[in-house]
Write a structure and sequence with these properties.
It comes from Halorubrum alkaliphilum. The chain is an alpha+beta fold. It contains 18 helices and 14 strands.
Amino acid sequence: MSDPGALPVQAYLIACLLAGVIGLWLGRVTWTERDEPGRLEVSLYLVSGGLLSLLYAIRIASDDPTTMVVALQTSTPILAAMPVLWLLFAFAYAGWDEWRTEYRIVAVVTPAFMWVLLAWSSRTHELARRSFEAVSDGPFTLIEPGIGPATVAFVLYAYALYLAGLLVVFDLYQRTGNRYRLQTFVALLGTLFPLLAGLATIVDFGSYATLEWAPAAFVIHGVFLYGVVFWLGTLDAAVVARDTAVEVIQDPVIVVGSDGRIRDLNPAAERLFSPDAVGESLSTTFPRLESGGDHPITIGSRQFDVQVDPITDPRGTDRGHVYLLRDVTVREQRQTALERREAQLERQNDRLEEFAGVVSHDLRNPLAAATAAVELARVSDGDRDDALERAADAHERMDELIEGLLSLATAGKAVDALERVSLDGAIRTVWSRLETGSATLTVDLPNETVLADEERLHQLVTNLFRNAIEHGGDDVTVIVTAERSADRLSLRICDDGPGIPDDERSRVFERGISLGGGTGLGLAIVGDIAEAHGWSVESIDGPTEGACFEIGGIDVVDE
């Protein structure tokens, strides 16, 4: 029995017991979240290291050789599992799932299993262990089993597995960006403890040569791995996707883990978002990506199509998603321009058809009336003034139609350039240029500057004022007001004339529709000008019983 009063024995027992408790406790904690890649292996590694430490404490503290041998034999399969668990963790951590098939796992485990069988049966052949006698080494009394050829082979095999795992993690260290090199470095650093402890156990450095340092070293290694997968963040989704989310790709790539948190951003995504978004929830950072809304989506001034690809391992386990954002801003701008051009062409075709209809019908009627009046004046022997007056009225009607047609031809053209226009100034300027007779203008407008094509805004207001004067009479009162909402403004131009019947309000903006004998083009031009600006226009109930028109969606410029 080892001397329990000796300080080295007490220190080593405390270290083994502490390592055992820590290993079992952290192993249990890790087991509760073992679904994440690599955590199952870390849990088993910690539990195994903890059991080895406790069993070794029994071997030191026991005064019964049989108990020592039982503890030694019990720890044998646990010791054999340690390098296998390390290698399996390295495969899971680095995303080498093609190496985690059943056949390859069996192939890795088989040599360790054969060594366990040989160690258990060494009393008959001494291939793994040559002795089971207790020997004293200073204050320590331990079983010194000796090293047989099978154990030499197993030690070499175990070191080969640890070195293979190191190479896998080192490859990961080289492949990952700087953001993940801390995790891989910690994993590499922790692996030095069992390697050096094994070397110290095998090689006699002149102090307590029979002591084994590996059990506590395994627990320390397990704590390092625990820190990697829990404190520093496992690489799961980011590592698996690294080969496809290449650093040089120009499109933003976002890697999201199975827990919905952002694990990686390539440089293009970092320029679009903030690098601090790594570790944040996708649903919080950018909910439209997670919800799978309509595409393309708009981020700032750019538009993106979103391609979402799942990340799964060979067993079908969900390990996250890769979001690839393709910049389609130019494509969408071209598509919008094309649609605008098509709409403009369609409006122009409609306008040409209406133009032809006006020319063939509306213009032909006054032309025929003028021709008839002139012919009557030519052949009449009496007073020709009445016939010539009718001809003059017909010519005036044709002049109005021609003026309306010219305005109609340009009213619906797309507005290419917008100017800053004082709304109050535009209203008063237009009124001053019209023959208003006894009509009255009341203006109650905020001092606002709007964005518009100034000439066409004047034309729109002119047509509404003329409509009020023509239908409301010489003494009509025109009321102009506006209402602002956020950065948009609605302009209302109302009069106290006879108004528009409710069943006619939806038709007054159609070409050729007139409720008072006009050309039927004035309000149609108003509608075209509003549409060309992207505004809305409608006939609404006003403050009086007269007509009231509201032009909405006018952009306001804050001074």
